[in-house]
Amino acid sequence: MSTEEPIPASAPAPVDNAQPVPPTEPTAPVGPKKRPRLDLDSGAGGRERKRGKSMFGLLVGTLNKAKIEDKERNASEAAKKRQLIEQRLQNKLRKETEGVRRAEEAKKDKVVANRREEELQLKDSLYKYRRTHVPLLSNFLLTSDDVFSTISAENALSNPPRTHPPPLFYLPAVLLPAQASFIARRKAEVAHATTAEWALFHSERTTGIAEINDLRQRVADEDARKKLEAAVAVEPPPEAPEDVDVVMDTEPAPAPMEVDKGPEEHKEAQRAEEEQKEKEKEKEKEKEKEPEADDDDAVEY
Prior knowledge:
Distance between the termini: 227 Å
Helix content: 55-70%
Structural class: mainly alpha
Strand content: under 5%
Strand order of the largest sheet: 1-2
Number of strands: 2
Mean pLDDT: 75
């Protein structure tokens, strides 16, 4: 048997009634760390810096060279011709666009002028009919008239009411005093209303005619411009100046070269000449043989 005694379980340490320890002060926040600067003047950093400078210098030199070449290219004759052609094409496109726009405007103006003219003609016929026929109808009475009512300028030109049966115009053989005064008052109001209505329409018609003339004048100007452009396009271009080096058509043609005839052709030519000479001699001999007419041999009758 062992003589060791069992170790008793550890008991909780007694708590002292001492005062609590005050908390420690918070530490100051640590700021961002500064990035160390590279020393480009020493070691590999210097080489990188020089390399960057050299590359930047090459880039600037290339850009300057391209700029100079561009200026030279623009200053060359081919570039000037190309710019001139581009300018002509732009001017032609601008003229065509302007011409199409003017043609569309002229077409619209023509349609508006025709429509406005039709409206004025319709109104003119309507107001002329009212001016001539309404005063004639004011001499009659309507079955729907109230002879004791007053007549205003507004309802003087109004149409008869639509009722069933419809109202009828009539004129009694003998008018009552109320009917006579009603007809007189209505005639005066109708005459005044028709005159005022015609004067208002006359001013409207004058303004409308001026607008129509303006629109048609624009259409005529556009047509004249088109005809002028067509005439200019048909005209032949001016003749180019004659070049000194060009051979003129009036230059005399070269004389044909003489070709030596062969012996046979030469003999035939001689034979023909001899025959011609013999014929001439024979003619001379025949003339000599003819007797000369004497005056003594003439017969007197």
